[in-house]
Amino acid sequence: MVGWLFYRCFAGPRLQRIHRSPDQSRYEGRAGRRQGWNYQPTSVEKHTDSILSWASALLSVSYYSSPLLLCYLYKKDFICCSKLLPLSQYVGTALVCLLGVACLRGWGRWKNSEYLQFISILEETKKNHTEANKKKLRCYDFDFSYWPFDFKWTEVNNLKITKGGVSLLKQEPKLRGAADSILNTVRTVPCHIISFLIAHSFGRRMLYPGSVGLLQKAMRPMLQQGLAKLVEECDGQRNKLVACDGNEIDTIFVDRRRDGGSKGRTLVICCEGNAGFYEIGCMNTPLEGGYSVLGWNHPGFGGSTGVPFPQNEANAMDAVIQFAIHKLGFQLSDIVMYAWSIGGFTACWAVMSYPEIQSVVLDASFDDLLPLALKVMPDSWRPLVQHTVRQYMNLNNAEQLLKYQGPVLLIRRTRDEIITTTGPEDVMSNRGNDLLLKLLQFRYPKVMTDEGLRAVRQWLAASDPVEEASVYSSYKVDDDWCVSVLRSYQTDTDVLFPWSVGEDIAQEERRHLALFLARKYLQNFEATHCTTLPASEFHLPWKL
Prior knowledge:
The protein is α/β, with parallel strands linked by helices. The protein has 21 helices and 14 strands. It has a nine-stranded mixed sheet with strand order 4-7-8-10-9-11-12-13-14. A hairpin with a 2-residue loop joins strand 5 and strand 6 (165-166). The longest helix has 30 residues, at 81-110. It starts with a helix and ends in a 19-residue tail after the last strand. Mean pLDDT is 90; it is low at 24-33.
C-alpha cells in the first residue's frame, strides 16, 4: 500500500492550486474563506519540479530548433557513429539523472499532506466516477491530462459524424477529363508536398500561436489566475470532453439558471481567438452580462489535446454542443454562439450544422482567411498560399454563415489592425465589411442592388460614430417604415432566405432598407482587435 501510494505521488500530476477544501473542517480552518490558495510544495518537491520544468523547456526549444541543429551538426561532421556514440552515452546519463530527480519529487509529494489528500481523491474519482467525487476533485487545479472524462461523443448518436469526423463545407472540385486529371495530379505533386509541410510546421503555428507550448508556458501564471477566478468567484465547473477524433477538449461551464433571470436561461458558447484561452478570453464579456456561459479551448490550447486544424476544430465544436444539450440540459433554441476573431470559424460551423441555434454574435471576425494570408506572405508565394489555405486551413466563415437562417450580429472594430488588408487606418479594408456585404447580398438580393451597395459602403466608410450617424441621417431613413415593410413581407410569404423583398419599391426606398439592415446586422466598436469587449457592448442580435 505504501509502495503504491509512493508510485502515485511519483507518477501523479502537478498540483497548482486548491480552489477550496473538499472537507468542511479544513474549509472552516481557513477562516471560512471561499477563495482558494496556491499549493505549497515541500522544498524538495519545489526544487526538483523546477529542474524538470527547465528540462521540459529545453526539450521544447530543441524540438523547434531541430532542423537548424541537425544542419549545424552535419556541417561540423558530428553525424557519424564515432561521435554519436559518446553523445548517446551523455543523453543516457542525463535521462538517468532526470529519473532520479523525478523520484525525489515523488518523495517530496509523499511528505505533503495536501498532495496526499488530492491524489487519494483523484484515484477514488477514477474508480467511482460519481458526482460527489467529481465535486471534490473540482476543488483542485492540476495537470488536466489526468482529469477523468466527463463526456464522450459516443454517448450520443450523432448523425453528423462521418469517417473523418463531422461534416465540413468543402469546395466543389473542378471537372476535368480523365487524362487531364492524371496529368494535373502528377504536375501538382510538389505543390501538395510543400503545402503539407508548410501547413503542419510554421503555417499552423502562425495561424494559431496559442498552440505553441513555449507561449503557453509563458502565459501559465495568467491562465492559472483566470481559472481560479472562474472557479472561485463564478462557481465555474471544469469538464473534459472527448471528441470523435479522440482529442480531449478542456471546457468550463458557469451556470446562471439558478439566478432566475431570463439571461441565465440562455447559454452563450464562446469561441476564442488564435491566441485566446477561456481562462482569460472573451467569455468574461457574457459572464458580466449575466448569461450562463460555456467556454472551451481549441485543440492544442491549455488542457485540450490535438492540433487546431479546421477538421479538429469542428469536431471539438460538435462535442461542446452535444455536451451542452445532453449533459447541461440546454435546448438548441437556448444557445447563442459568441466568437471572437478566428473563433468565428467554429461558430459559423455550429450554426450551419445546428440551424436551430438561437443566434450568433461574431466579434472582430472575417469572411475568409485567404485575403489575410496573402497580406502577410510574399506575392511570389501567392499560388502556394492559395493552395495551402484551401487545402489545409480553409476558414470559410462567410460560406458557412450563409447556410444559417437565424439572427446574426457582427461587431466591427473600427481600429482593427489584424483583419484589415491594408492597415487599421483604412476601415474599408476590414474583412468584417465583406462578411456583412456577403450576408446582406445573400439574404436580401433585391435590396442590395447597386444603389443599396453604394449606400452601405458609404456608411461603412465612416471613420467615427458622428460621421456614421451623419451618413445615416443624410439618407433620411425611416426605421418604422423599414420594419413595417419587412414584417409585411415576412407575414405574407414566411419563406427562408434569400428574400425577394424590395423588388417592387423605388431605388430611394431600397437604399433606406439597405442602410437599415446594415445597421441592424453590424455594430461598430471604437477599439483595436485585442481590446476586450465590454459587457455593455454585448447584446443578442436583432430579430424582426
